[in-house]
Fold this sequence. Notes:
The protein is an alpha+beta fold. Its EC number is 2.4.1.18.
Amino acid sequence: MPNDIRTGNRAKAQEASPKAASPLSGGIEAIVHADHGDPFAILGMHQTGKDQPVEVRAFIPGAEKLWVVDSASGDPVGEADKVHDEGFFLAVLPDRKEPFRYRLRVQFPLATVEFEDAFRFWSVLGELDIHLLAEGTHLKSFERLGAHPREIDGVAGVAFAVWAPNARRVSVVGDFCDWDGRRLPMRKRTEAGVWEIFVPHATVGQRYKFEIKGAGGDLLPLKSDPYAFQAEFRPQTASVVHGLPSYDWQDAEWQRTRSASADLTAPISIYEVHLGSWARVPEEGDRFLTYRELADRLVPYVKDLGFTHIELLPITEHPFDGSWGYQPIGMYAPTSRHGTPEDFKYFVDACHAAGIGLLLDWVPGHFPTDPHGLGWFDGTHLYEHADPRQGYHQDWNTLIYNFGRTEVQNFLLGNALFWLEHYRLDGLRVDAVASMLYLDYSRKAGEWVPNRFGGRENLESIAFLKRMNELTYGHHQGIMTVAEESTAWPAVSRPVYLGGLGFGYKWNMGWMHDTLEYMAKDPIHRRYHHHQLTFGLIYQFSENFVLPLSHDEVVHGKGSLINKMPGDDWQKFANLRAYYGFMFAHPGKKLLFMGGEFGQWREWSEARSLDWHLLEEPLHQGLHALVRDLNGLYRGLKPLHQTDCDPAGFEWIEANDSDNSVLAFLRKSGEDPEHHVVVVCNFTPMPRDGYRVGVTLPGRYEEVLNTDAPEYGGSGVGNAGGVESEETEWHGRPHSITLTLPPLGTLVLERKAG
């Protein structure tokens, strides 16, 4: 190092400020011990008064010497005094009376390096951002909070910002500072409770967390970034600098026509998938498939089967595989189990190229207690309710968001919009809505706090759900939101302006429970439970329903769908084929969890792949072929989808033949009142010859699907392609058809005018 740096300047500095460190001594100690709430008041470039020498102060643990370098010339302008043994340096520059751009040249025991000083850069958040964040109305808070690669004053680095209003001190720690919380304490913007810093030279791909000291001085566990766009692969828990992912989208045609795919009159058939267990790579340690591999394998598979949408179990970053994603910590990060954010965008693009919509299972109701997560984030109950009667979910050992805080609502509302905007997802299935609606959900008397009117309704959460639906539908044309809601709460899928919650669709949990319970019974007993198949039509059109055979029905000892069915193997498959036929012909959109399409015997487990080898066996092949044909029929026949949510499109023909366990109903098109489809289900193993069914219109009724067909593994009992109507009044209708009903079978017959 040139000796002339020490000559003159040091003496002048000491002469100009012989006790320069004295007024700073308290601040220096606070900086050294990582306990200063306003580090920018101490560190960086300062002047003690007008026309006073410029001072540069830096805290560099482990440094032996430090020089201030003029950025314009690249020349050193002064050497700093080491005023604290831990590494606090003070450089008084008597020849400099105006602030200037500078760098630090630092001598360590093994090397001398030169770098930008983070404390020479001013605020990274603008006044409007601060105002909106404080107000809780910053719908794009994800563009400001978190970690954002950017360039300031010609210097590349990363801008970090985090909401922690009650913290005494917040530092960003990571690969760029040896994870030393003393190095990069952040500036607090008190108006919004947000801490910020620009870290020059930090780069994409580096790991980081926030080190937070609570108001009482207690050091909290390192916290992951709530707004991180990428996270480490579990079990590691650091956030990863990424920035908003860029991608060259190729889905313009899908975006142009997307609205039609979400319409109430559209065929919507959803394949529900857990990406981590749909398939694995056994020859490589049973690893997960990447998003790109899934794009190449899952998407063509779903397209071939004829599903219109894929719904992903939560892929927001989560620490525990066994939660299936339902205990997320990284709400803004697609899980790194399958690759990068760009890889996930590739997967989304592949779905759209195949004409398939993509829904995300979204979890805004609760979050896990992992120490690196949102709980006790700044030493207070920041994101969760302080009162465990409101803030702790006993069933899931999770914490419940405090929807009474505008900042918490803003975090989640921005998240919903983020997935729809930046990943172009086509909708959100909102998890556990019932738990969000009721304050006494799964709680005994005395374990919950009534609302301000003394009721059990969670008013803040209800307001949040309404606002979420208003914003998502208002900002993104052609998307859908779907509520998993199991109670009798009214108007879940009605617009907010009509008094509803604003969802597009609601899962019909009652239909699922009733019909599965019926199908599990031995056919000899079904006559006594006939109403379980018909009861759902009493309320079917009170909501826009999705009929869900979801992951929840094939875990925790419930058995797989095929194993719920009674009888020997042939009867089990016949029962399930008849049930699928009933489901696809019944009003309502459809959802089937992976594995159900080919009759997996084992319960689903997130820890292993589906049993794809079963597709080598004829009965499994037949069920698989039936699901493909049911999807094709559902999409191709307008009476089966146009009036899914319209009572005008459904009529019972025979709802009361419990003795024979037979149902017959009519589905009608919304466009052509004479386009009729007749559906007849026989839920006993006895074929029935000469079964007469009343029809409204004359003509030929073609048998467009028979779940007992040989190609599906059935016995081949049927009607030789179709039947002609007769002018014989039956079931209160002027015409009728005489059918042979297959055992444990569903028939779908389309009227052709003759």
